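Writing this down once: the sequence line spells out the residues, with the fold written below as integer tokens. This is how one looks:
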Amino acid sequence: MKLWGGRFSGEIDEHANAFHSSIGFDKKLYKHDIKGSIAYAQMLGKQGIISNEDAKAIIKSLEQILEDIEKGVLKIDETAEDIHTFVEAELISRIGEAGKRLHTGRSRNDQVALDMRMYVKEEIDNLCSQLVQLLRAFLDTAKSHTSTIMPGFTHLQKAQPITLAHHVLAYFQMFKRDYLRLQDCRKRTDEMPLGSGALASTSYPLDREFLREKLGFAVITENSLDAVSDRDFCIEFISCMSMIMMHLSRFCEELIIWSTDAFNFISISDAYATGSSIMPQKKNPDMAELIKGKTGRVYGSLIGILSMMKSLPLAYNKDMQEDKEAVFDSAGTVRASLQVFCGMFESLQYNIENMKNSALGGYTNATDAADWLVKKGLAFREAHEVSGRLVLLAIEKKVRLEELSLEEIKKVSQIFDDTFYDAISIERCVEVRSLEGGPSKGALEKAIKNAEVFLSKLSQ
């Protein structure tokens, strides 16, 4: 069945038809399409555009079609042009003439815009639930590791000592923003386009407010041209997902580095690693690597949909059929990546002593040495110079700063005294950074409390 055959006297080319068809991927929208059609039939009957008898017959049959698909009794016909055509053809085959009245005042243009908005809203809700689970996992780890000292890095070089809690809470902030971005995207997605027709609305007295309420949208779209040709919400959605994948990729790279023999900060569970076909000793962090790889896949979808939309005149163009695979693939990729990452993160084993020993190396307390000199009266630039010479001396002697004798450090500057050693102890270096947002226990307690408040509001 074709919804547009009357104008045509010849058949479409076989290859062109296969190229044109979208049923292979938009069948994913069957539930949204049927639910939208049920609400539309209810409205048509209420408005007297079709008889109540026809409306009831349509609704009952659509409900049965949905049930049959979900139970596997009805298989979606892969030869249909799209999901809209399949559902309507199935409806007509079941109830005859009444089924032909469903599309009154409606176009596939506003129909697919509705389906996509319903789908994206649903996916946003699914992803936000997963993000909440991940945020809780981060928070639980942070609570358990406020005293676990590790090196912080810049340029992948040891920089200053921090705690594992502080490091993990940095990712809490990233994924918190991801959650809020998705919620913001949902607001712009939550607009009901039915009633926009092909591009210029319709002459039938549709009740768009009724449709909005029935379908659970916040508002109705304000311009029919925009409503059928807008895919900003899809682009924004994939952009939000790209950010999620970027954050996952960053943490995955760190987990990969931390699991190496050179670092040995963590052990990744066997459930999230694989081995080598030739090297018996290998334990490869394949899940973390694959998440990194799939990040590029989501980026590709974003660039693809932006490129597809960049020069389209109003209103609907067939180019826009390309939005669906980009959205579907990205959503599926992010959902799977979040699920695997969360499981992998929750099962990590931390080598706490190795983390602390690593922080003790690399002169991560050199900044605190400079700060101690400032408190003794030196200008910071001079203190920086003196601390640098102290590090050079320690490197030459192949010892840590705190292992230099008082006699040795006094040769660098006569300002040094016995109190210097306490000031550069690794625990002290962390604890003195008590500003809000810092790694000290007091600052972490506040950060953890703020995180708990954020998550508690989400469950209200």
Q: What stands out?
A: The first strand starts at residue 149 and ends at 154. The mean pLDDT is 95. The chain is about 60% helix and 5% strand.
